[in-house]
Amino acid sequence: MLAKVSKNIFLYASQNKALNTVAKKWGLKFGASQVVAGVNIESAINQVQRLNEKGLLCTLDHLGEFVSSREDALEATVCNTRTLEAIAKAGVNSNLSVKMTQLGLDIDRDFCVQNMHRILDTAKYHNNFVRIDMEDYSHCQITLDILKELRETYTNVGTVIQAYLFRAEQDVKELKGIPLRLVKGAYKESSKVAYQEKEKVDENYMRIIEEHLLSGSYTAIATHDHHIISKVKDFVQKNEINRDQFEFQMLYGFRTEMQVSLVQEGYKTRVYIPFGDDWFGYFMRRLAERPQNISFALRGFFLKN
């Protein structure tokens, strides 16, 4: 019960604009520096280089979401194109992940799509891939609609499907052939649209993983759950699925030993690396996901202060 209350508190905080504004003034405090790779592109690229040396692939995420001004959305667009350019210049192995609410989705759909075109054009020029992060349920359908529109022009773009949503299995079927990152889900959603019990989320997660793999589509399995990872290993072996068709993904700062272990076993493994000063919402969702993350963050705070 206490864990559920804590989760709700952190999820509420993650979308509180006033708290987010204050957090930007704090800098990477309260353990956030353990899961956020600095506030600028240079620090993020340094972390990518370090992880690449261990055989890990990466994806960079310039943090920010729910932007309410065109100026901020344009600034975010420029930051994302510069990130792609920095990846190319440094010669590191990293994709880019973006949130469309950071690019003005809540301001104007067409404006956001124009910003996506700028980013995808830059990614195409540098032969890179862009993942559109899935946000809360209210943005799910419009995200998939825009993705399908973008896929008419670009092949270097995919998105994320969240297993806790009832609609996830059908969405995966409709997105056959499109590279997907499959996750359990990290937002607080109504019981009208999402499973609330961990067991049901886990069951649906394995269903959509198997569905996308069996369709021959490239699949990114994003989880720290060693039980799920073990099941995926067994499934791909049983169904003779080539290791080039999928990858495991984990978050920067979490289960680093397992990340390296998977690489040593011959599995492609990618680390999701967030950076930037708009870190508060991301950090709160990480604390909400697992009670263990709270003590993890507190240890980081006392060690660095």
From TrEMBL:
Known cofactor(s): FAD
Coiled-coil ranges (or none): none
Signal peptide: none
Nucleotide-binding found in the keyword field: yes
Residues annotated to bind substrate: K99, R285, R286
Reactions catalysed according to its record: L-proline + a quinone = (S)-1-pyrroline-5-carboxylate + a quinol + H(+)
KW Nucleotide-binding (keyword) present: yes
InterPro entries: FAD-linked_oxidoreductase-like (IPR029041), PRODH_bac_arc (IPR008219), Proline_DH_dom (IPR002872), Proline_oxidase (IPR015659)
Domain Proline dehydrogenase: residue ranges: 45-296
Pathway: Amino-acid degradation; L-proline degradation into L-glutamate; L-glutamate from L-proline: step 1/2
Protein's GO biological process: L-proline catabolic process to L-glutamate
Protein name: proline dehydrogenase
Organism, as annotated: Domibacillus mangrovi
